[in-house]
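New to this. Look over this protein:
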Amino acid sequence: GPLAGGAGNAAITGTSVDTQSDVSEGNTEKVAGFKVEASGSDISVNNVQVTLNNASAGSTWLSRYASTVSIWMGDTQVGSLPVSAFSQSGTTYTGSISVSNAVIREGAANRQYFYVGLTANNTIDSNDANADNWSVTVNNVRYSDATGVVLTTTYGSNTTSNIDFQTLATSGSVKVVITRDSSNPIAQNVEVSDTSSTDNVTLL
């Protein structure tokens, strides 16, 4: 529905609730968070600008680690931007991510949690993964109030550090469980030919 109220403001604070510091190959993880509370009116978040930087010895090319940076409101993705669309200045990558369907109703009881998500590449060079230390900074959040005014704000403690991309081999999250199949053959003698090959005998 439409935004209700008059001139509105957003109180934004950082949070680490439900965030992860490790991003494994092929996975999307929420690595940085902030919560938004609306006062004066309902507000609609329109854009989030983020900066990423690798401060360690691994490759500083973001594209070697991730394919997409996304914005989430709770468990719902409300915006995304491919890494290829980020602007680069030295080792710093900056992108403005458009957000849609992200309405926060007025009042403390209606505050919403937002997250920056990173989607890791399906394959990451092990040398890069073993020597990376990425940080994510939410530079600003742009939103509109019920009067149609668009405002841009920043908040304190808006940088999350020590984000680590991992290969599946080192992530500790990949497991293989082997059990005997219910149709495992019982003990038996296998008769083989003495003049040709004997093929396709199931043993286990």
Remarks:
- The longest helix spans residues 126-129.
- The longest strand covers residues 28-41.
